[in-house]
Design brief:
- The chain is an alpha+beta fold and about 240 residues long.
- About 25% of the residues lie in helices and about 35% in strands.
- The chain has helices spanning about 45, 70-80, 85-95, 150-160, 165-175, 220-235; strands at about 5-10, 15, 20-25, 30-35, 40, 100-110, 115-120, 125-135, 140-145, 180-185, 195-200, 205-210, 215-220.
- The longest helix has 13 residues, at about 70-80.
- It starts with 5 loop residues before the first strand and ends with a helix.
Length: about 240
Amino acid sequence: MKRHLVIATAAAAALIAGGTVTAAAVSGGAGSAHTASGTQVSAQQAAPRAGSGTAQVQDGRSSIPMQDDDADGQEELREADAAKVTASDAAAAARKAVPGTVTGLDLDADRAGLVWDADVLGKDGKWHEITLDAGNARVLNQHVDHEDDDDHAREQAAAQNAKTDAAAAARTAASHGKVTSVELDDDHGTKAAWEVETITKDGKEHKFLVDTQSGKLSVAPQHDADDDDNDGADD
C-alpha cells in the first residue's frame, strides 16, 4: 500500500506573527507551517480543511488519517468495498489451509484480482504465505517462506505468546472502518501489538494497535503513520 506525502499550501497570502506562511508538509492531515520569521504554526491554522475524517476510540482520542491523497484513498475504499471476504474470515480461511497462527493479512489487487495475502506460522514450525480470493476465500496460491532470520524468530515468539489472534484484532478494529491490513508488530515499544489498518467512508486510512494480551484497541502513534507515508514515498 503506497503512502504519499502531501504538501499543503496556504490558500491565500496571510501574515502570521509578522511573517508570511510559505508551505506546510503534512502526513495524514497533521503537520506544521513555518513563517518567514521562523514562527511555527499548525497546519490547521495555515490551511484549515473541512472534515477531519478521523475515527474515535475508547479513550476519546482521534486517529490521524494516514494519508490525504484522495485518489489513492478512493482506490483503497473501492477495493475494501469490493472485498466480500472480511479480514477475520480471511484469517479463518488461512488457518484452515494451514493450521497455525496467522501473523499478517493484507488486502491487495494483483494479477489474480482482489486477494488477501496471509502469513501463517504453521504448527509445523514453518512460515507459509497464502493468497486467498477476496471474493470467496478460495486458496489461489500457497508456498513456504524459507527465510530464517532474526525478524522471523522475534515474530514467532510474539505469535506464540499472543492471547489475541489476527481475526480478533480485525473484529475489534472493524467498528472504525473496513479493515484492509493486520500485522503482528513484534517491535512496537516494549511489547508486541497487532497493527490494524482501516479505511473509512471518506477514503481516509487509519492505523490502530490491538494489544496481543488484552485485546485493547488504541490509536497508533503518529510517527507510525508517518513512517508508512515515508516508506511509500521512497517506493
